[in-house]
Amino acid sequence: MAEELKKITLFVGNVSLEKELGSYYIDMRPSISHYQTETNIYGGGIDENGVPFCANKLYFPINIAQYGFILHAQYLENKDEKILENLLNIIKKLNELKTVENGYCVWWHNYYSARYDLQPPWASAMAQGELMSLYLRIYQITNDEKLLETAKQAYSFLKIDFKDGGVRRLDQNNDLWFEEYPSQQPSLVLNGFIYTLFGLYDLYRVTKDEDVKKDIDYCIETLKNSLHKYDVGYWSLYDQKNKELVRYYYQKNVHVPQMKILYLLTNEKIFNKYAKKWEKNVNWLNFQFVKIMYRIRPRW
């Protein structure tokens, strides 16, 4: 069997609607090898303060957030003060990277995205959502109200429409999307949208803000109306702009767990349907077909 089929699996983590957040929805601890210097898939490493960076010493908010989820889950298990110190260093770096103005907080991405033709600086809804989730979890450990305020300000940015430089957009059916990559032509990246939604769930669990709940309900309806567009029968799609098949890693370790989590959070049968279907699709034969399609499609 191909070596890629042996890659690590991210597991469904703590799925709850309680105010106490606990560990993140997806248990990312198995992916810690991605951050180790000798196997770092990001072309970077870990700096002297324990903060991960990518190639060219670029600090990528999503990369930092997901490493933070790993450390947070470890801390909940063993209450190691060194891990907490590492988490606080991560928050310190994120505070240095954020921009706060007009009542909102945003982590700008200062590089050109060729895939979606995004000129810097640009914002990512996925980064906003994941950092909301991280800040709220550290807030519940430290009771530092500044962390809660930052999470609220990050949500305020999610209220800004795409036309005004934000990441919020309505599609032709008036469904609400939060764009991981706010490209001119809607990209509608599925996993990034759902990670943003997880951030909204966390903020609502902690604050009970009814505006947040309205956005959550709006997003769930969007998914119910649109999931079929990401299903090609034997596999799932990454977005709606390029309509690219997801890599094996994403199919198994991101899309399937996300569907399972959404089903547990909402009890909506459609999420269970796609969780089962996409998980069943993860087999050797389909994997070989997807690899062939990756070679053929560029020629089209």
Structure description:
The protein is mostly helical and 300 residues long. The chain has one domain (11-227): Glycosyltransferase (Alpha/alpha barrel). The protein contains nine helices and eight strands. The chain has helices spanning 61-78, 81-97, 125-142, 145-158, 190-207, 210-226, 248-266, 269-281, 284-296, and strands at 11-12, 26-27, 45-46, 52-53, 99-101, 104-106, 168-170, 176-178. The strands form four sheets. The chain has a two-stranded antiparallel ribbon. It has a two-stranded antiparallel sheet with strand order 3-4. Strand 3 and strand 4 (52-53) form a beta hairpin. The two termini are 28 Å apart. 39% of the residues are buried. Residues 1-8 have low confidence and may be disordered.
In short:
By secondary structure, the protein is mainly alpha-helical. It has helices at residues 61-78, 81-97, 125-142, 145-158, 190-207, 210-226, 248-266, 269-281, 284-296; strands at 11-12, 26-27, 45-46, 52-53, 99-101, 104-106, 168-170, 176-178.
Q: Return the string of H and E elements.
A: EEEEHHEEHHEEHHHHH
Q: Total number of helical segments?
A: 9
How far from one another are the termini? 28 Å
Strand content: 5-15%
Query: Using DSSP, what is the number of strands?
Result: 8
Q: Return the structural class.
A: mainly alpha
CATH topology: Glycosyltransferase
Report the major sheet: 2 strands, antiparallel
The number of domains: 1
Overall 3D shape: globular
- The low-pLDDT segments are 1-8
Radius of gyration: 19 Å
